[in-house]
Amino acid sequence: MTTPIITDAEMIAIAESIDITTPPWSTAAGDRFRIASAHAYASGFKVLPLWPGLKRPADGHSVYTASGSEVQHYLWRDAASKNEWGIGYVPRGERTPGGSVRMVLDADTRAGYEFLVDLLGAPTVITAGRDKGAHAGGAHWYITVPELIPGLVKGSANEYGIDIIGATGKEDSYVVAPGTWIAETNSYYHLVTHPDRHRLRDDDDPYRFMGYGISVTKTDPAWFWLNDMAAKTRAAFAKPIRPEGYVPRDATALHDWQRDVPWRVILGEDGWRFYRPAPCPGGGCEEWTHPWGASTPKSATAHEEHCPESGSGFPGGALHCWSENARNQCGGYQSVSKITYLAHVRYGGDFRAARAGEGIPDEEDWGLKGCSWEPPTFLPTTDDNSQED
Ligand SMILES: [Zn+2]
What we know:
single chain; alpha+beta; six-stranded mixed sheet; five-stranded antiparallel sheet; 12 helices; 29% helix; binds zinc ion
């Protein structure tokens, strides 16, 4: 047992004193990109290019095109050397070479930051948005955990103002990597390093020590906290949104119909194509490609009822449209029930006609009132739910 050279308090003080307006190192942008990519992959991340100055993937890129290929990194380096390209890290779904699972805890609030400092000590990365805006106080903790935790999703720790990137092992989310420049605030993401440790390596290449993050073991408080968060998510998924024994006052037949006819039947009939299972805790949700000339395969997520990721209580589940085209076909709504989907896509927005046309039994008056129509939910418009700060 040796005495640590550096105390937690010292590292926290260093993290909080970082000047995010200065570049974190001096290597030319292109080489930085290549070196960062290679080391990131070995440390449990795939890599994607971000537009210069933005957090958004470059055209044609997303978490789903993130690469571990050296050749790809070489090509990107050529592009990156001309501009201030950014880098996104997608935690890899398979175990790291060290046998553990890579995740990133992303604190979006001051409270989240303080909670994680107490739990894990100094952050791994200070974000470019740290000083202002919606993500003030932001920081990232790069952790490895011994194994995936069933039920854990990106939003499991929302109540703490913390996202868990890589929670599901599905490679469906990314963080903006250290070194990336953000135009809006003219500031950089910084790796938190100590001068004494810095001397041990190439000054221009902090990524060499990327693997160094924080290793969470099964006896650490952080492990128990993550498992608590996962248990809460599993419980929320299992719990019906309506109290037990509740019978809808009207439209029972409609609710039954929406529960009986799966999304895959409805979407299949309209020419949608199944893309892949969605990374939701229940395992039954699916991603689909719309039939109206989709440019990317993830047009919409068909959620099962009670799925906590759906953000909706629609009987029979919700269709969440990622594609603007799909959204327009669904009456402009981002998240729709089956009857709302059918009314807009097949019946020009006429709920009464939808109900008659689909042969859904009629308890009372048809039309909006008789349908016990539930207003669709509006969620923030985005092309991809995976974008991170
Ligand atoms: Zn779902």
